[in-house]
Amino acid sequence: FLLKLSLLLLLALSSASPQDIVKKHSEDRHDLEDRAPEMTDISVNTSAYDNKDNVKWQTWTGSVPDEAVSIWNLYDIRVDYVCKYGCHAGVYNWRFGNFCHYSFDKKEYRTNSFDILVNDKYFEILEWKEGSFGSVPANAVRTCSSDEVYVGKNKYGLGKVRPSDWAFYLPWGGEEYWYWYYEVLTIKRDIDHELIHDVEYKINDAKMIRNPPSTLAVSPISNNGCNPVTKTVTLSKKVADDKWWDIGFLPFSDAPKTFQAKIPNLESGTIVVSNITTIFSFSEVPTDTREFSHSAKVQVSIPPNSYCTVKMLAYKYNVNIPFTASLVRFFKKGYKSVPISGTFKGIMVGEVSAVVERCAHLSSAQLCP
């Protein structure tokens, strides 16, 4: 009997319209600022939940960030912003002052010390997906790490979804209302491929540091004769240049990644960008390590019965060049392109030279007549 009664009650509530469940009419919403008490005595975890993504919680500083996450509230004909206090997701709207309105323990509260949700550089694609009875779709936006609470909404506005309670909670008119049907904010993650291209270097802002020389090759030459001789010595060596593109905090997915750019090189200590576009795959940081042949030629005058040593010296440069680029994320349906920036960094050979060290007498040489 109790089981049948519970099932009947469940069916009755689930078939009720939102207007039937919500106890207050929309006309009660105009005085939210007067009715919602400020938060002073409820203990919650106030540490922001950092999921190391571009969708993140940012401390409120008195104005709405350009990249704040918002919804168009058709019910009240206004733009609402996603905010939170502790783990409690709520709503910010300038009509009610600089407060985040949220619900807790059957009441609505407001606070001027809160976080607002931002989508940095509008990098991520955000989607509202349907949920019910506490269900939460994959890649939902969570409010904090210490409690399982997610950003939710229904036709009346923004609030929080708590799976353990099987419900979505809405702050409204000084009270907390709950619903079984709602939508949850999610980050689109079905990425097939990522591409960085359209790389533009700011050569005028480049910084270079010339390091002390290092020896690449050594060639000893000798003259066992009794007359001076002149020889031409050519030294050559392959040396690897290390180059990478530091994009900083940019979070990549696990999808395949491709980098497409023209690559800077050094010629006689001067930055020269290749005319050829290079395309390669990468996993975390775009990196290019290739060997280049360097050579140096010098004429050496060797005294009789002497030997000389010729060295090829290389001057390596630490090079930093700011750049801008486009990151394109290809999804199963559609794509999104966003501007990014970073720094090209390289440790490259910029100059080589041949140096003749002081010649010395051959101890084994025979005396000249």
Search tags:
DM9_repeat, 369 residues, mainly beta, 2 domains, disordered N terminus, seven-stranded antiparallel β-sheet
Question: How is this structure best described in words?
Answer:
- The chain has helices spanning 2-15, 18-21, 32-35, and strands at 55-59, 70-73, 78-85, 88-92, 100-104, 107-111, 115-119, 126-132, 150-154, 157-162, 167-172, 175-179, 181-187, 191-201, 207-210, 214-223, 229-246, 257-267, 270-282, 287-302, 306-331, 335-356, 360-361.
- With 369 residues, it is mostly beta strands.
- It has two domains: 14-187, no CATH class; 192-361, Beta Complex (Proaerolysin, Chain A, domain 3), CATH 2.170.15.
- The relative contact order is 0.14.
- The model is unreliable at 1-37 and 39-51 (pLDDT under 50).
- Residues 1-18 form the signal peptide.
Contiguous low-pLDDT stretches (5 residues minimum) are 1-37, 39-51
If you compute it from the alpha carbons, what radius of gyration comes out, rounded to the nearest whole angstrom? Answer: 34 Å
Structural class: mainly beta
Helix content: under 10%
| Strand residue percentage | over 45%
Task: Give the SSE string.
Answer: HHHEEEEEEEEEEEEEEEEEEEEEEE
Whole-number tally of structural domains: 2
**What oligomeric arrangement do these chains adopt?**
single chain
What do the pLDDT scores average to? Answer: 85
Supply the number of helical segments. Answer: 3
Characterize the main sheet: 10 strands, mixed
